[in-house]
Amino acid sequence: MKLLLIEDDTNLAKVITSGLEENGYVVNWESDGKLGAEMALAYTFDVIILDIMLPEINGFSVCKKIRTEGNQTPVIMLTARYQEDDRVRGLDCGADDYLVKPFSFPELLARLRALLRRANNQHSPSIKLRKLTLNTVDRRVFYDDKEIEFTAKEYGILEYLVLNKNCIITKNMIEEHIWESESDIFSNVIEVLISRIRKKLDNNNKNSLIKTVKGLGYIIEDK
């Protein structure tokens, strides 16, 4: 899924971004509060990782601003501050979780997965839909009890469709969630990736798990 990292420490931001990308996330990084708030309101993200001590405007103000604008994207505050009143203030501004630096990267990943499950009303790291099972911790996919290997982009698309089962997902929605903001992709790349996913799951037969809704997009139905 796609994350927004708002962090002014360049070295730390590079380490976090690299680690998240290695775990299959798409990451957009902004280094000051003003640009971070603008990015959060201009594009769709699944989770925002937000530092408190930022140039321009601080993390508390960023969180309050996007919540005032109606943005309900889950926010995890990442900061060196450890006082209880800062944690309380962050949560009262609308943050969903709070992680104090220095932190372990596995804990950050676990908290991100928990926020994503909560946002999608998932209580288990394993998502089951008909013959399909996705393990969101290690990104393994099983179909009809057989494990199938997917590329990062293929898995991202499949997970996004499953999390939004019974809803029509347009190509623009897939592009917004699976690629970095403002990135240009070839016009047919999503069609190619959908075709590859279908072939791996059920060899593109007429009863394919992923249905095309002509002129609109794609859907996976829970039936």
Automatic annotation (TrEMBL):
GO molecular function: phosphorelay response regulator activity; transcription cis-regulatory region binding
GO BP: regulation of DNA-templated transcription
InterPro entries in the record: CheY-like_superfamily, OmpR/PhoB-type_DNA-bd, Sig_transdc_resp-reg_receiver, WalR-like, WH-like_DNA-bd_sf
Sites bearing 4-aspartylphosphate, chain numbering: 51
One annotated Gene Ontology cellular component of this protein: protein-DNA complex
DNA-binding span(s): 124-222
Residue ranges occupied by any OmpR/PhoB-type domain in the UniProt entry: 124-222
Annotated keywords: DNA-binding, Phosphoprotein, Transcription, Transcription regulation, Two-component regulatory system
Ranges where the Response regulatory domain occurs: 2-116
Name the record gives this protein: DNA-binding response regulator
Annotated source species: Dehalococcoides mccartyi (strain CBDB1)
Name of the gene encoding the protein in the UniProt record: rdhD
